[in-house]
Automatic annotation (TrEMBL):
Listed PANTHER family: ASPARAGINE--TRNA LIGASE, MITOCHONDRIAL-RELATED, ASPARTYL/LYSYL-TRNA SYNTHETASE
Listed SUPFAM superfamilies: Class II aaRS and biotin synthetases, Nucleic acid-binding proteins
GO molecular function: asparagine-tRNA ligase activity; ATP binding; catalytic activity, acting on a protein; nucleic acid binding; transferase activity
Family: Belongs to the class-II aminoacyl-tRNA synthetase family.
Location in or out of the cell: Cytoplasm
Pfam families: tRNA-synt_2, tRNA_anti-codon
Record lineage: Bacteria, Bacillati, Bacillota, Bacilli, Bacillales
Name of the protein in its database record: Asparagine--tRNA ligase
GO cellular component: cytoplasm
Primary gene name: asnC
Residues that span the membrane, as ranges: none
Biological source species: Metabacillus litoralis
InterPro entries hit by this protein: Aa-tRNA-synt_II, aa-tRNA-synth_II, aa-tRNA-synth_II/BPL/LPL, Asn-tRNA-ligase, Asp/Asn-tRNA-synth_IIb, NA-bd_OB-fold, NA-bd_OB_tRNA
Claim: Cytoplasm is one of the keywords in the record: yes
Record EC number: 6.1.1.22
Amino acid sequence: MKTTIVEVGKFVGQEVTIGAWVANKRSSGKIAFLQLRDGTGFIQGVVVKAEVDEAIFQKAKSITQETSIYVSGIVREDERSPFGFELGVTGIKVIAESVDYPITPKEHGTEFLMDHRHLWLRSKRQHAVMKIRNEIIRATYEFFNKEGFVKVDPPILTGSAPEGTSELFHTKYFDEDAYLSQSGQLYMEAAAMALGKVFSFGPTFRAEKSKTRRHLIEFWMIEPEMAFYEFEDNLSVQEAYVSYIVQSVLKNCALELNTLGRDISKLEQIKAPFPRITYDDAITFLHEKGFTEIKWGDDFGAPHETAIAESYDKPVFITHYPTSLKPFYMQPDADREEVVLCADLIAPEGYGEIIGGSERIHDMELLKQRLDQHELDSDAYKWYLELREYGSVPHSGFGLGLERTVAWISGVEHVRETIPFPRLLNRLYP
């Protein structure tokens, strides 16, 4: 019976055959232990000299790391294994030998591992992170489909920028200037006017020369946009969505969280509603915590966000930022025009902002004023203005950065481990 590692629990006491790679091995005289992986999971294969042909035992002892094989064996329950099963090996057929595999069980430096990212992905830790990433993506589609959203794909090449062009990658689009998208938001607003509630999931690019553990040059965003949703409605969707993906990972990735040593008690607390603090109160709080250099009108850096987040055991919304700090399209507070109806969602445990969102300006004249204030070309945004000209409605949306969210939920320190092939300031290889 040919099967996969993740399915072996269905065949306890039976002989199965699995296509696998040898992740590691050790032997002690009359027993060889093979750590096997097949992409779906990891399992230990036990080769007992007295129970197999001599040729099979010698093959098990001499087999090299990452050699690909067809391995046959009896599936046994094993309470000592985190996976719960092991394989009593009866046969080994080598498919392709691996010679001098560069990533050995010893410690390697980060740069070395990043140079070999195409191979590092095979490790148990990286496998766990990628499985959690996949579960977050799966749960994202499930959540928005259940809530009646329509998936829309905005363009990656754009002729304008929602937040200015200073941190965009410029390219030529035949005889025009174009940029790699930093957000699909403006296009999602157009889609919301047609389809009501929409979401996108795709790559975005920031030409930001940052080397922090929270930044990537290319990253993936989930961007919902909702017609007839105002500020409070928007926050409610964010709370429900983040709670949903966290609980989905807890339910479906217990083994991977265990592999990463994640403290799941902290994740179990992530359920809506989330606490909120206004920008004004955050400034006061930071002054009390000794951050006396920050003043009203300044943006928060990583140390400020971390200090605020440490006061809560759930993600916290920081709301009502100064208008001067935010992009042109955000709706001002009707009672206080120097702040906008926006919120950043800050993850616990020092992982920083994972969501930025706001109610959008729906008044045509105000949007024109904002474009002028930000010195943006109104001709380039003609189509965007027309969304307000033909049946404008209040609407809101947000963007969640996938890699920061994966880092927080999985508990890894750096976002470079949360995407298969990270693009960093000085890294475009492999």
